[in-house]
Amino acid sequence: MNERKALHTLLAKNQADLPPRKMRDSYIEVILPLGSQPEIREKYLNANNTVRFGRILEDLDSLGVLICYTHTKHEAVQRSPLSIVTALVDKIGLWKKVIYPDCDIKFTGNVSWVGRTSMEVKMHMLQLQNGVYCPVLDATFVMVARDPENKRPAFVNPLIPEGPEEEKIFKEGELNKIRRTDFSKASLLKMAPTAEERTIVHDMFLNTLDSRTVSFRSRVLPPNSMWMEDAKLKGLEICHPQERNIFNRIFGGFLMRKAYELGWATACSYGSSRPYVVAVDDIMFQKPVEIGSLLFFSSQVCYTEDNFIQVRVHSEVYHSNTRQHHTTNVFHFTFTSENQIPKIIPKTYGESMLYLDGKRHFDSATKAPTA
Q: HEC string of the chain?
């Protein structure tokens, strides 16, 4: 980090000082040779003889950073003065249920929208089957550029779309930013539920009242249902140097993998069968995680619909010297189960807000995957 301090002189004072880039300038293709190099399969293999999705999350996070460094690369400079970090995972939509461990995977991606200090990256994953690469998933990440010491925002090269197709993609990036802002403003932590959402909560409440008593406190669980308080799991990670990034913080892809695996285990125990991930939605990286941190994960089934299970994973660091907890991330995963699943039922007002928040993320995530 001391070496990086000297790179401050290379930072642009204004975005206009940086040369514009085109989408093709940051385009990258990477092959993960699971089929042609069997020795690397072990790292990606799960007990069901398919690919571990948590490993794919790690690879997407690394690729997103690499794409952004390619977009901002200055040929005359050997080391980039920028610290590029993941701000959020906007959405990952999956086209296929199973990722095979013995077929090559191809990742492609490029910068699709640029603000002053942030970049949206669109990535696609394909898998080789019968000689043809078939789509597996599409992902949209937002990365931010910061100064060499990762303390303040830094300007990035503007992006110039070429032709109607790229202009459409760029416009989608603008609309995504507006949608995220609107979603945040309407958060149930800030605003009351809508009239329709209040009706949903009240109907569930009435459906759990004991008809034999005239009491708001006597609650009965409906058939084929489960109380929300009984559908959670917890986990702990001690953050070792092995998982650090180049800025001496814990790698964001590692956090995503650990959160996903706990979320998967929660959906598995809830549905009593193997769940399949359908979408990842709205992962916000709120605070960096330092080496040596005690990292607590809390996973909760917060919404169900048909055979879909919406899981929310909350992560926080515990500082032993101050005895304080600080939220670092909130993750949202949508799974589907092959078996019939119980309906999740909130009991308290706080759980009802979790339920409505889960419904909002489910509705957002299960729209057609972004292309």
A: CHHHHHHHHHCCCCHHHCCCECHHHHCEEEEECCCCCHHHHHHHECCCCCECHHHHHHHHHHHHHHHHHHHCCCCCCCCCCCEEEEEEEEEEEECCCCCCCCCCEEEEEEEEEECCCEEEEEEEEEEEECCEEEEEEEEEEEEEEECCCCCCECCCCCECCCHHHHHHHHHHHHHHHHHHHHHHHCCCCCCCCCHHHHHHHHHHHHHCECCCCCCCCCECCCCCEEEHHHCEEEEEEECCHHHECCCCEECHHHHHHHHHHHHHHHHHHHHCCCEEEEEEEEEEECCCCECCCEEEEEEEEEEEECCEEEEEEEEEEEECCCCEEEEEEEEEEEEEECCCCCEEECCCHHHHHHHHHHHHHHHHHCCCCCC
